[in-house]
Amino acid sequence: MKVLVVGPGGREHAIVRALLRDSSVTQVHAAPGNAGIAGDVTCHAVDASDGAAVTELAQRESYDLVVVGPEAPLAAGVSDALRAAGIPVFGPSRDAAQLEASKAFAKDVMAAAGVPTAQAVHAADAETAAAALDRFGAPYVVKDDGLAAGKGVVVTSDRDAALAHAQACFSAGGTVVIEEFLDGPEVSLFVLSDGQNLVPLSPAQDFKRIFDNDEGPNTGGMGAYTPLDWLQGYTETGDDGVTRDFTGIVMDQVARPTVEEMARRGTPFIGVLYCGLAVTSRGVRVVEFNVRFGDPETQAVLERLETPLGQLLLDAATGELGAGRQLAWRDGYAVDVVLAAQNYPDAPRKGDVITGVEEAEALAGVAVLHAGTSTNDDGALVTAGGRVLAVVGTGGTLAEAVERAYAGVEKISWDGAQHRSDIAAKALAGHISVSSPERQA
């Protein structure tokens, strides 16, 4: 099959690399891609959010499948334009993409579906926001209701800072969702959906803050790892008397009810539902939904996937996932560390020359996936975004995967490059633990 991957980032590079490992995939193209993706496949200079342009390209090149990577094209209805032209597309419709594009919409769906999540208030003015902050107390959680590339969330114990973030959103013409703070570690689980049938991938954990020890402002994500050994043994017995593991709990309590509610509303969800979860003392709670593969978790998760990705995504796009689909995974662990530009996440500097990528990729168990890269007039690789590269390490143990990822990081440099040095450190040190929730009477 011939596949087009729509998007410019690290998630798309990971998808491209995984598709190239699928023997049933004869060609992969990208639009618009980036410098790293262009080194692997043919790229087309098309605006990813322009549904008409993407559809024209897909018709001209006769793709068998289009995979829409980022949230902005999905919210803009690119999938709708492709489907209207009869082209198989992996990615939800504009209406279904509201699960990510509007936090308030997602809360409404979860309430209707009985999905466990944080209590929340949708606020459109300072008075409502202030009352909600006082209701839930510190730490305060304030989320921009719309798309914000993963950076529209403020979690702080400073009430003034929380209210200031809300006011900034109001001043920009938006609204906010203010939530109760959820205790416990966070987990990301991707669930593929063909509108009815569901297939979970491997749980992962990402790191949102820019600095070590989870300090500094939120980013789009500075690294991730999978699988999560500390989730082993986490179980819950349902009302049906069946004891489920973590993934089973999420499928039963979160993913399936959500997809069923979307179908009931006449907006079937076709694509990948990103379940951002907190493993709290009261059980699993939804922090957020995304409607696409998460970045940087995708870079780690797809590195371990043995099941051919192209056929899997085509089956989801065409309603052929089937019930009880099982995926095959490589043994061991995958860890990725994001290298970001100077001044990220505020005003990242662009145009700095990058060196050492080839040396990093020459190391055993190391892959380098491009996000914000391009080439300058001299043909040199340069920074072109906030998150520039993700260095992925794989190994038989988590410690080996971490060591390999950071060995790759050490080979790469540019002026002002920054990265976290503690990806998966708490897991390695045994500092993350969860207890199965007691069954409620």
Architecture overview:
This protein has 441 residues and is of the alpha+beta class. The protein is 31% helix and 26% strand. The protein contains 15 helices and 24 strands. Strands 3-2-1-4-5 form a five-stranded parallel β-sheet, with helices on both faces. The chain has a five-stranded antiparallel β-sheet with strand order 12-15-20-24-21. It has a four-stranded antiparallel β-sheet with strand order 6-9-7-8, with helices on both faces. β7 (140-144) and β8 (153-156) form a beta hairpin. α1 packs parallel to α11 (297-304) and α7 (103-113) packs across α10. It is globular. The N and C termini lie far apart (52 Å).
Strand arrangement across the biggest beta sheet: 3-2-1-4-5
Beta strand count: 24
Mean pLDDT across all residues, rounded?
94
Beta-strand percentage range: 25-35%
| Amount of helix | 25-40%
Distance between the termini: 52 Å
Structural classification = alpha+beta
Tell me about the largest β-sheet.
5 strands, parallel
Task: Kindly provide the radius of gyration, computed on alpha-carbon positions and rounded to a whole number of angstroms.
Answer: 21 Å
Shape: globular
Instruction: Note the total helix count.
Output: 15
Q: What ranges have pLDDT less than 50 throughout 5 or more consecutive residues?
A: none
Write a brief caption for the model:
This protein has helices spanning 10-20, 35-38, 51-61, 71-75, 78-84, 98-101, 103-113, 126-136, 159-171, 246-264, 297-304, 309-317, 357-361, 398-411, 425-428, and strands spanning 2-7, 27-32, 42-43, 65-68, 89-90, 120-123, 140-144, 153-156, 176-179, 186-194, 198-200, 205-206, 209-211, 215-218, 223-226, 235-237, 243-245, 270-280, 283-290, 333-340, 366-370, 373-375, 381-383, 387-395.
